[in-house]
Amino acid sequence: MPEVDGAEVVDVPATEGGVRLSAVVAGTGDRGLLLIHGSGGQGRCVWQREIPSFVDAGYQVMAIDHACVGDSDCVDFPADDDPVRDIAASAAALRERGATAVGVIGASYGTAQVIVAAAAPDVELDAAIALSPGQLDADVRPETAPEPRTPAAARRRWTSR
Questions:
Q1: pTM for the full model?
Q2: What is the CATH number of the domain that holds 127?
Q3: Residue at 3 is within a domain
Q4: Cα–Cα distance between 143 and 110 in angstroms, integer?
Q5: Is residue 1 part of a domain?
Q6: CA 152, CA 57: separation in Å to the nearest integer?
Q7: Stretches in the chain below the pLDDT threshold 50
Q8: Which contiguous run of DSSP H or E holds residue 45?
């Protein structure tokens, strides 16, 4: 848990095809900030030291554990896992908690997810930051999900607007 008064562990309700995610939430206000971890087993804990600074800057912060990581439930069929759907569900949960604008920051492999989410038609985000982007041609979303599914395709969508 980050060292912030009022920080709590919450569940992000499952969306269609998704699973229940576990998240830590801290801070209040109408500016939401969603933190997306990279690959590996640390999940939301990688953001523990940064969360207090974001809260001090006036953000309501949510750091999630993706499906099959940390305290989140695991998908039945890994081929159907859609981390971008997880981002959409988490952004919606922040809005339900009072955020009128939601930005997202992704680190490491989470950057690919954030790049795709920022261009996805089924995700409502107001800002996105991708730290240490890589794997720009990697499929982030399953074939059944809406386009774009790769960061490279998402970039093309941004430049065509």
A1: 0.91
A2: 3.40.50.1820
A3: no
A4: 19
A5: no
A6: 32
A7: 160-161
A8: none
